[in-house]
């Protein structure tokens, strides 16, 4: 009989689920051996560069290419006129609208794509851009979404004039895109009419932009002889790109190969199809040569998918004990000039209806109106889980404001309203089925860890001296893992994901998954899942993603969906293999399959010590000695359509001090407890939490895509767009509880977006808490020193007596 | 982020650099550390046809003392300033302020002379130079001339330096006993220019302020000397009430431009706050000396 120590040793050798093994990706990244799109150099490659609009809104009177074409080395200048015969001057968006590939007669936002110069090298392409002469007739710009539906508002989308819908339901104004309503309005209104207490507050989630280290880009390579198109691209969803490119170009999908190589961060910025990609592909098809297009940082911040711009008004009705009775929300959503946000097609406001949060709110109603403005398109990006960031922000601000009005402690009011552990699975007022959770335990653990009562005492004492100290709490619930095909599709393709595993004769394996890592460490964690499920060491399991010619079709990586969907597919594919392996083992051991027990890495005959076959032995047999009638080989494919989303949650607490003479904020402590169910690699989870919190800190404290009244961008370089360094970033303390998902094969939930979704409101709650005793109910982000000082100065807190 | 075409020149001597500058005229720019010029070229805000790289001119580097004055070659890098034991002893405000400039990578390349000659009010050295009574050596085809820091900065990117001249050396009087100093800088993040900053150097004798220099960064088209504030403290025993008065006088000379760092009101208040903090710290240091 094997001893416990031997079991343990065998298990540890696998480095499977629960092991904090080091990332397999890192040796190549830290040695500069990663291979990103801009590292792709193909023979005869041309370069594209984009001519962009200096105006937010203008008619294009003429485009003169002559001087640019006269520059030796410039091969072409593409404009909408050139794309028209191919019907590619406009393209469909993932949100049911259309978007100009190159501006057709007018420009609708500053930096919009007007022409694309194709040249022999990157420098010549840039020189060519300078030589393209575009004559504009400026038009009044619409910048403030609150004026989008004014009677005299400038009409942004002349192509839609007279149309009463733009792909997502009925619209009521030329600048209106859609109205989306959810919940029981009449019942909600009734409760508000008679409630003990109500609070109402405008809360803004300003326009921000993800900032992946690598900007967007592609190398398109069309082989005229074979009729095959290969595109290396910074895409979080390469298979979807292949389908879209096929639909747009008319090429059979089988002749298109999309490769997402190493991706330097995505954060939702790399889901959509951008004009630069289309231009490069068209140019490659025209010239029969590879064409590279890579964004600069300014182009990235100015044009490709931004995030948020949700102008929300929240209302809570409650009894005098702070027990919430109803939630009402009205949102004005600024989608920019085209409705091109990337999300499941049927969800114009994403999963915003998760806005009842972690609380048992019996009745709710939410309405979102999307409008066009003269700004870049997008809205769904940045670790956001499809508008969950906005939803959590709203409810976490509103519950604080309610607590403030009632004089109830901000932790206590959460305990009074939490969905109780015994209420799971829980059906929310706005229609979601929460799979599992234990919110009170999580918050209790955090409050004890930081000694919450002592912090409140210190705060009270500081307030007597005029010092500003804030304590922020956020108890969020996420909804990730899009998603069940009954709820979710992208352009009609269900949001399943997939895994194909091949075990080789000598007991190593390759797995290919339909997702694509952008820094998440899939090559490490997926191997761990297979190691535990198959009993093969994760070290010999290769994981490949991102090449549509080899990986099975999948919907990609965003919305924290890789572990909930791709991870489940991986576990199930491995289980199919283990079932086959059991039959082979039974055949080799000459017993019935039912007589075998699985133990870590082998099948053992029940009650007969020593009668066993390891997975390694079975793998060899799979290629030479299988039971009669069985196919040789050891391969399996799984397409996993999740039965539900997963609902990770967490309890965060932030303590900060504010310098009342400069407005500077110093985060003294940030304690983050996350529950993502079963934890596959705790080290990678912690890394994800650190990254997400750092991005949350950036959003809350400094990031803003700012415009002047004319629609000119004011913050599109890293000089003005806040990207914190290690110096500014607070120290993170992490903790966890484990409440497995009941429907996921491994009990795992997503995690990567939780720290962003939960972190932002935690910071903003802390800043608001610092001023709460002075009657302040809402200070919008970003909490830059300047903005914080404005509040201080208005309140006279910086007076020197 | 792709610059236009330019020719590159790398002279080995100051004379050669001056000759090139004379020959190439307006189409040439001097390249020092490159951390202002190269980004401007990549954005095509500047498109010089010729770059004259000063990095190979050994004579433009180094820090030495000569009869009570510290001589610093214009091409001395920020990190060389920070590492200098001589400066820490004889001109401590300079290495302290240099630590506030951008980040370590930039400080490896960025130079004292480049920071001064660029004429950007956001740069830190102009105010520091005013606070330490620096003298600049300008060399051109007509020879060498000296100018005090107070008279060098004329406007945004506009200085006393003629198009055919090179700033070759910075000379700073070594501090005497009883000197205190401070550079207080408010910035949004590492690597950013100042929202506002104040450079202060003062000398106490028997508790009385014999001399004080107060200069401000990034709150006007050029670095600013807060003369009224200085006068209000000279000859006095400095206390909190006087510091407050001086801060108000410093605020009165500010003429900042609104940008993403803040509006004019905020920047003016921050100039006042940095002045308060810098005077307090300089005073404490002077008392400790």
If you had to describe this structure to a student in words, what would you say it looks like?
The complex is a heterodimer of chains A (801) and B (289). Chain A has 19 helices and 33 strands. Chain A is globular, with a radius of gyration of 28 Å. In chain B, 34% of the residues lie in helices and 27% in strands. Chain B is built from eleven helices and 14 strands. Chain B is α+β, with helices and mostly antiparallel strands. In chain B, strands 4-5-10-6-7 form a five-stranded antiparallel beta sheet. A four-stranded antiparallel beta sheet of chain B has the order 11-12-13-14, with helices on both faces. Chain B has a three-stranded parallel beta sheet with strand order 1-3-2, covered by helices on one side. Chain B has two domains: 110 residues, Uridine Diphospho-n-acetylenolpyruvylglucosamine Reductase, domain 3; 103 residues, Enolase-like, domain 1. Chains A and B meet through helix 5 and helix 19 of A and helix 11 of B.
- Write down the Rg of chain A: 28 Å
Bin the strand percentage of chain B: 25-35%
The helix content of chain B, as a percent range, equals 25-40%
Strand order of the largest sheet of chain A: 3-7-1-14-11-12-13
The largest sheet of chain A, given as strand count, sense and whether it forms a barrel, is: 7 strands, mixed
- pLDDT average of chain A, as an integer? 97
Low-confidence stretches of chain A: none
CATH class of the largest domain in chain B: Alpha Beta
CA-to-CA gap between the ends of chain A?
82 Å
Helix content of chain A: 25-40%
Q: Outline of chain A, from the CA principal axes?
A: globular
What is the third-level CATH name, the topology of the largest domain in chain A?
Aldehyde Oxidoreductase, domain 4
CATH superfamily of the largest domain in chain A: Aldehyde oxidase/xanthine dehydrogenase, molybdopterin binding domain
Gyration radius over CA of chain B: 19 Å
Structural class of chain A, by secondary structure, is: alpha+beta
Number of individual domains of chain A = 3
